[in-house]
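Handoff note, outgoing to incoming analyst
You'll be picking up this chain. Sequence as last confirmed:
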Amino acid sequence: MKKEEKLTNINTYLIIALVIVVAIGLYFTLSVPVVKKEVAKPVPPKEIMVTVLQGCEDCFNISVAVDFLKQQKNLNITKTDEVSMEDAKAEAKKYNISKLPAIIITGDIANLTIPNFNAQEGVLVFDQSLPPYYDMATKSVKGKVEFILLEDKNCTECFDMKTVIDQLKQAGIKITSEKTVDSNSDEGKGLISKYKIEKIPTILFNKDALIYDVVNQVWSQVGSEEDDGRLVLRLVSPPYVNVSTGKTEGLVELTLLVDESCTDCYNVSMLKDLFKQSFNMAFKKDETVDVSSTKGKFIVKKYGIELVPTLILSKDAAAYPSLTSAWGQVGTEEKDGAFVFRNVPMLKDVFEQQGGFAYKNLTSGEILPKKEAEAEITQPSEES
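Most recent structure output, in case you need it:
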C-alpha cells in the first residue's frame, strides 16, 4: 500500500511540474520572438555483429538476450553467428568469460552502452546467464537441481509438499531429477537417520539449488546444508509427522464460543477462513458452543472468558510459528496449551465494513460497543 501511495505522490509531483513547465513555455512563446532552430539530424543506428556462444542443452536460453538486442532502435545487427559450446570455450577464455552461454558484440561499439554488457578487449560481452549454465572454472554445468521428496504415505492430512516443488519450477529452477521416498521404507529410514530429520514431509536437494537466488536468499532460515553438500528443508509447514513420536502435528481443533441470545453479535465463524488464509491452518474439527450450555459454561469458567463471540484453538496451533509469535497481541496461551482469542474489540474495523459489529461482555451483560443514541441516553446530566 505504501508503495502505491509513493507512486501516486510521484505522479502528482510530475503532473504539477509538467503544468508549470507548460505555463512557462507558453509565456515565452507569446512574449519572445520565435527563433528558428535547426532540426537535429537523426543518428543512424550502429552496425554491430553478434556472436552467440552456446552452452549446454539444458542451459539458459540465450535467445532472450539476442531478442533484446534486435529490439533496440539504435542498433543494426548486420550478422549473427552461433558457436557450439565446444568451440565457444576458446572464445570464452580469450575474453575472460566465466559462464556459457554468452554473447560477444563487435563492430561499431565506440561509446556504445548496453545494459548487462561489459566492455572487454575491444568487444562488448554478456556473460550473466541465469542457471543452468556451463561454469568455465569448474568445467561443469551448474544449476541442475535434483531433489528427493521424503513423505509418509500413511499421512493423508499432511501438508502437500508438491505445491512447493511446483512453485520452485514456476520460479525458473531447472529440476532434472525427481524422486519420492516413503519415510517408512528402508531408504526413508536411512535418510532420516543420516540427516537427523525430525519432521515429515520434507525435501532434500543437491547443492546446485543454492545457485538460484530464490533459494539462496532464504535457505539459512528454512534449511540446512550438510557436510556432503545435501540441502535439507527443516522448516516444514504443518500438518506434519513428528518423527520422534510418530504423531501428526498441526491438525487444530477449533471451538467457536458464542452467545446465541446476542442476535447483534458478529459472526465469529468468519475467523476460521481468516486463519486458513493467514496461516494456512488445517483443522481436524470445529464446533460451535453456546455459553449457556454445560460445555460453554465450563469453557467460560476454565479460561476466564469475558467477551464473546470468541474462539479457542487447541494446542496443535503451536505447530504454526507465525501464529505463536503474534498471538501475544490478540490472546493468551493457556497452561493446557490452548490458544484463547481475547482482543475482540480489535475486530471492529473488519466487521463494520460488512454491516456491523457487536459483542457481549459476559460479566456485565452489556452489548458493546454501545450505539451513539444509547450512549447519549445513559450519560448523566450535569444537574444529576
